[in-house]
Amino acid sequence: MAAWVVSADRPGSVERAELPVPAPAPGELLVRVRACGVCRTDLHVRDHDLLPHRERVVPGHEAVGEVVAMGRDVTGPPGAGALVGIPWLRGTCGACPYCTSGRENLCLSSVHTGWDADGGYAAYATVPADYAYEMPAGYPAEELAPLLCAGIIGYRALRRADLPAEGRLGIYGFGASGHLTAQLALAEGATVHVLTRSPAAQALALELGAASARDARTGPPEPLDSAILFAPVGSLVPVALEALGSGGTLAIAGIHLSDIPPLDYQRHLFRERTVRSVTANTREDGRAFLASAAQHRLRPTLSPYDFADADTALDDVAAGRVHGVAVLRMPGPAGR
Question: Which domains does the chain have, with CATH numbers?
């Protein structure tokens, strides 16, 4: 089958490869991939910012496709023919204090698609049945793909930000996660202010219903109840904190962040402002978000790429040339 793999000896590059179609292990599904989102975490794997866990791994953890085979011990659902999503979280121990207290996203033994195991930049991929998502109806596969990471992480970040009912939310950075989270927050009754330097992203924010769209250094037109930092820019942490009103919460949603400058207690933290990080997600987060996506028709802004151009898609994401979400389109039933 056609696939892309992370180069073992050249950080920052991926290579075309022909690999055998994987056989599903016990408890796994074999999925024919129809579309796969291109996530910034794929860049961290490609560039070895996340140290390789597997040589020449196939990246991609926003894969959508049909179940074509099931390993032993899979009883379904989802069964053969079901449209499923293959997400970042691939497995946890199920027995540690984090797993047994509903915080499996913090499991120290967790494994991840496109890092520990081959992912969706391929014609076929496997996924443990217990970690696959059944996808909502009414969306094409290309629009479903970014929901699996950009959407789910945005959902968890929104919950971590403790946004009150009809509250004022600031979103710093308006890429894949930001523009999906804004739509969900608006559907739930929030006032959304978008802080981004990109004129195209500002225009998209206003088109989607944001109350304002400005450069982050300018700040929102009113104090915020909550904020989410999606941009991996540590210097925006004090900027976002200063924009919060009393008792506000900042959730930092990236897996990687540049250095945070020193904070001034009075300006940035006093009056019970809170800073929280966001680490991956639980399966319950994913199920809850996809249920919300079924209820509120989200409209991902897509930049589609042919599967043969996955390397270009990654370069464009790295350079900030993607409008909305980059998604790889598989060329046919066999991905060839």
Answer: 2-138+297-329 (3.90.180.10), 152-277 (3.40.50.720)
